[in-house]
Amino acid sequence: MKKLLLILMLACFFKANAQIENPNYDSKLAESLGGDDYGMKMYVLAILKTGSNNVEDKEKLNTLFRGHMDNITRLAKEGKLIVAGPLSKNDKNYRGIFILNVKTIEEANQLLNTDPAIKEKVFDVETFQWYGSAALPEYLKTHEKIEKKKH
C-alpha cells in the first residue's frame, strides 16, 4: 500500500511539473527571432571597464566618446547591439554593458573592435555568453517611440 501511495504521489508531482504548450505561441515570430522552444536564445554580454589608456587630451577623449556613441548607434541599427548603457559608479570600475545579438565570443570581439574607445583601450571588455529572451530585440521598436532626445 505504501508503494502504491508513493507511486501515486510521484505521478501527481510529475504531472504538476509537466510543461504545457503555450496557446499564444507564434511559430513564425519565434523563428524570425531565433527563439528555441522556451523563447530563448544565446547572446553575448559585454561588460565595459575602465581601460588601461588614461587619455588626458580632452579633444581626443571627446572624439573617442563620439565614435563610441556613433558605433553603438550603427550596431543597433544593424541589429547586432540589443542593449547598451552605462553603469553607476562602482568599486569594480565597470562602466557599462552591451548585449550583442551574436552567438559567439569571437563574433562579439569582431564587433567590439569596431569601437574606437575600445580599440584605444579607454575601455577594456569582459565577454560572456548569455541565454535570454529571443524577444529582446523587439523592445528597440518601442524605445525609439519614447526617446525624446537622440545622442
UniProtKB/TrEMBL annotation:
UniProt signal peptide: 1-18
InterPro entries, per database record: Dimeric_a/b-barrel (IPR011008), YCII (IPR005545)
Entry keyword annotation includes Transmembrane helix: no
UniProt domain YCII-related: residue ranges: 46-130
Transmembrane segments: none
Keywords, sorted A to Z: Signal
Pfam families: YCII
Protein family (similarity comment): Belongs to the YciI family.
Protein name: YCII-related domain-containing protein
Organism expressing this protein natively: Flavobacterium microcysteis
Organism placement in taxonomy: Bacteria, Pseudomonadati, Bacteroidota, Flavobacteriia, Flavobacteriales
